[in-house]
Amino acid sequence: MTPDLDKSLVETAYARWAPIYDAVCGPVMVKGRRAAAAEARAQGGKILEVGVGTGLSFDDYDASTEITGIDLSTPMLEKARAKMATGRYPWVKDVRRMDAHAMEFADATFDCVVAQFVITLVENPEQVLSECHRVVKPGGRIILVNHLYSEVGVAAAVERWAAQKTRGLGLRPEFPFARLQAWAQANSDAILVERRKIKPFGIYTLVCFERAGPSLAA
Predict the structure, then answer these.
(1) 7-213 is classed CATH 3.40.50.150
(2) Using CA atoms, how far apart are residues 5 and 27, in angstroms rounded to an integer?
(3) Taking every annotated instance into account, which residue ranges of this chain make up the domain Methyltransferase type (predicted)?
(4) Sign of CA dihedral 183, 184, 189, 193
(5) What is the mean pLDDT of residues 158-163?
(6) Distances (CA, A) of 88 to 14, 35, 63, 198, 202
(7) Could you tell me which residues come within 8 angstroms of residue 161 by beta carbon, excluding any fewer than 6 positions away?
(8) Highest mean pLDDT among 82-96, 108-122, 192-206
(9) pTM of the entire structure?
(10) Is 112 or 172 the better-scoring residue by pLDDT?
(11) pLDDT tens-digit series, residues 87-112
């Protein structure tokens, strides 16, 4: 495994990505993005999107939701704010520059937290998950979508090779599900409720955790 990505590398990489991100990554990530947003819409209410980037996902939500987005990249957020300024997305209430490792929100603020193609790229994934868990309400969900490490076979070997080549681009293709699972097991009120491959090719995996409510914790 390659080490977790440091914050400065990610900021630099995504400043470069910002001008072309929608054109390059929009079509590639569309299935995973829509699957995550559909799960979030099913929860409804106040949704936090961690790593909102350029606001690619704004079209995937609707008036049943109230979206707040955070990201570390100022150039990416400028693109998101330009989308908001068109008036097409009244359900997007705010986007802020914020470090997901130390969120500036009170406990139990959101009904749902979504992180699309983010958790494998942060400096400390477990800390970010714990922050997501802190700011979601009891009974609320943390919804992740990402490519996760294949672990065995030719695909795993390719991912390990690619990890060395793509690090400077702010990418990490060999992050294992086992780390997400271990985080949940270490948190008694974090429950894994779903793990599924996204059709048609299974490149991305949707993972959902629920923060146990008082009755479940009891």
Answers:
(1) yes
(2) 25
(3) 48-144
(4) positive
(5) 44
(6) 25, 21, 11, 28, 32
(7) none
(8) 82-96
(9) 0.84
(10) 112
(11) 999 999 999 999 999 999 999 999 99
Instruction: Please choose, from the candidates 47, 56, 48, the residue with its C-alpha nearest in 3D space to the C-alpha of residue 18.
Output: 56
Which token pair is 2? 């390659």
d(CA 121, CA 5): 6
DSSP the chain: -PPPPPHHHHHHHHHHHTTTHHHHHHHHHHHHHHHHHHHHHHH-EEEEEET-TT-GGGGG--TTEEEEEEES-HHHHHHHHHHHHTTS-TTEEEEEE--TTS--S-TT-EEEEEEES-TTTSS-HHHHHHHHHHHEEEEEEEEEEE-----SHHHHHHHHHHHHHHGGGT------HHHHHHHHHTSTTEEEEEEEEPTTT--SEEEEEEE--HHHH-
| Lookup result for tokens 């749902």 | 112
pLDDT number for residue 60? 96
Confidence check: pLDDT of 166 > 60: no
Length of the chain: 218
